[in-house]
């Protein structure tokens, strides 16, 4: 029974661990950035192709959050692609890596659809971050706080697009 070998199980756990770790890092980055309450611009970073990327102080919280989300996902997908393409891994590990890549693509599409729908409701900007079993939405509000009706509308968008229950959707206001 080839699939029960200890080395195959280790590789599968590595793939699962990497996927979960990337989701956790994305959520923590989003939460800590919003708790800081200010936009801390990144002046020099390394792009996914190794090039230097410069941002300005004019970049918004949402631009930086989207950039960080994209970079985190790109790194995870690149790692998964290298596993999927590496013939030294067993077929099950390679198939799992390919499924995880497809899941990242679907999650990205869902986030984009949700953000578009939320923006269509009249908000200045927003970002949605889907986890495996939760979602965080950061929405730019006017001077007033979100009403219960507005929060319900946002939660309905997230739950209908993601299939998550409303009790795992977190809304963070950014003024």
Please give a handful of descriptors for the protein shown.
5 strands, Helix Hairpins, single chain, three-stranded mixed sheet, 175 residues, two-stranded antiparallel sheet, elongated, alpha+beta
Concise structural overview:
The protein has 175 residues and is α+β, with helices and mostly antiparallel strands. The protein has 4 helices and 5 strands.
Account of the protein in words:
The protein is α+β, with helices and mostly antiparallel strands and 175 residues long. It has a single domain, classed as Stage III sporulation protein AH-like (Helix Hairpins). Helices cover 58% and strands 12% of the residues. It has four helices and five strands. It has helices at 6-36, 61-85, 91-120, 148-162; strands spanning 45-46, 52-53, 126-130, 135-140, 169-174. Strands 3-4-5 form a three-stranded mixed β-sheet, sandwiched between helices. The chain has a two-stranded antiparallel ribbon with strand order 1-2. The longest helix is centred in the first third of the chain and has 31 residues, at 6-36. Mean pLDDT is 79; it is low at 37-58.
